[in-house]
Amino acid sequence: MNELYTLVAWGLRALECAVLILVILNLKWRNIPIYGVYRFNSLADEELYSCFLTCLCLFAINILITHTIPYIFSLELGVFELRRLYYSFLVSISAIFCLLIFFFHSIKNCRFSFVARTCLFMSFIGTLINLLQLILRGYFDINILYSFYGPFIASQSIMDIAITMFFVLKFTSQIHRARVAT
Hints:
Elements: H1 2-29, H2 43-73, H3 79-108, H4 114-139, H5 146-181
């Protein structure tokens, strides 16, 4: 089962990379700079930039998770200490993701798009599940949520990338239709 989760994780990283590149291309096509001061001309531009910020944060956090978790599992710790470290790391990473989204949106003075709000909501639920796992498995050795935990985290990642991919493809089709019409 772990091989399946590893394969899904790397497949999602590839999709996240492709979506991030597509968002950057959409920003370029709309002449929206990634850095610097920019006043959004329309709500769609602001929504696209919010989607970019969300994709960027998702990509960075998931790369960090993918490369840090094997290191955590390689540590010479007892079972409970390892569980505590693992779930504490995941709770911290989820909180950092939420803070990054808020921070980047406030810097650009950008409203939260549906994509950003949905990813924040999913991250909040993931944080609560990880916190619950930390308490149950790390301190009390209760495995009641263990069979639910893996599929939930995998489906959360799939939902995040599916939502971002849907909206990026929507923006791409709008730009394509506008170019064909002219």
